[in-house]
Amino acid sequence: MTDLYRGKRLWVDRKEYDLPSGSRVERVAVHPGNAVVILPFRADGSCYLIRQYRFVIGEYILEAPAGTLNPGEDPVAAAHRELIEETGFQAETLIPRGTLYTTPGFSDEVLFLYEAHGLSPSCLYQKDEDEIIELVRVKWEDLPEMIRDGRICDAKTISIICRCIGESR
Questions:
Q1: pTM of the model
Q2: I need a surface site. Which of 18, 39, 103, 130 has the fewest CB within 10 A?
Q3: Burial class (CB in 10 A: 0-12, 13-18, 19+), 120
Q4: Which of 134, 146, 135 is nearest to 40 (CA)?
């Protein structure tokens, strides 16, 4: 294995992998660490998304609150922490909605998906200095159309919404 890049949040390496066919290939892999995605629901059935500036694409997008796990951090603890950091709300209940791989063709990142209920303002809320975030309240029934027309184009957000479809509101 050869490290090509090692940064604060992720690293990139090149190494040989054995395929199920018995072939051996050399590939580059990105290791960003795992993350959590939370869809917070209000008592009236609406939910919160965040409108966040993403410098890599140079625009604001609507997305579910999310964030990277700290080394050794439990995903549930990370979900509680990230919900507070990005929305200012704490959740009484987190319902696991499974996991997903973001880009398994070149990355080992796993996202842990949660639905949050019983929201209340948190005294621990402190906005990160490097994040430009606006909280946006959205009606649950509007989400499918927002996905169809492109107002929601973030893959992790589309995934958590799809995992929550069919659940009673």
A1: 0.92
A2: 130
A3: exposed
A4: 135
**What is the end-to-end Cα distance of the chain in Å, rounded?**
48
Tokens 């059935």, located at residue: 45
Q: What is the DSSP string of 65-79?
A: -EEEPPTT--HHHHH
Cα 133 from chain centroid (whole Å)? 15
| 146, 45, 82, 54 alpha-carbon torsion, rounded to 10° | 20
pLDDT in tens, the chain (169 residues): 899 999 988 999 999 999 999 999 999 999 999 999 999 999 999 999 999 999 999 999 999 999 999 999 999 999 999 999 999 999 999 999 999 999 999 999 999 999 999 999 998 766 667 778 999 999 999 999 999 999 999 999 999 999 998 765 5
